Input
Amino acid sequence: MDCIFCKIASKEIPSKVVFEDEQVIAFHDISPEAPVHVLIVPKAHIASANDITGDNSHIVAHIFEVAASLAGRLGVAESGFRIVNNCGNDGGQTVGHLHFHLLGGRSLQWPPG
Ligand code: 5GP
Ligand code: ZN
Output
């Protein structure tokens, strides 16, 4: 399948990996929007949040656990951070493989535009 995040997960495309286990890989976003901008991605191809089901939601729970741990390791646990999922066109999703952005290290605006 021609999927950029599947290729990153299989190391076919290089990335700056900050965490990896059997279920997920986390790496620095190529175009960071904040001093800390990491993408946390299931290794299995799940197209978007529309495809989260009872069969794979344990991976999403695990991603949030990894995000909390990475926030500590990357030094933003105390200052605060944001976990974002963009879904579909209106959500601003540009890569069709489920991923969660971990953003921090600056004051983030709300609401988003
Ligand atoms: P989305 O807009 O789908 O929520 O987020 C996709 C993110 O993937 C963007 O922030 C974009 O910068 C990042 N991205 C796209 N291609 C690559 C890549 O090849 N390597 C890395 N590390 N990040 C990528
Ligand atoms: Zn994929």
Q: What stands out?
A: Residues 57-73 form the longest helix (17 residues).
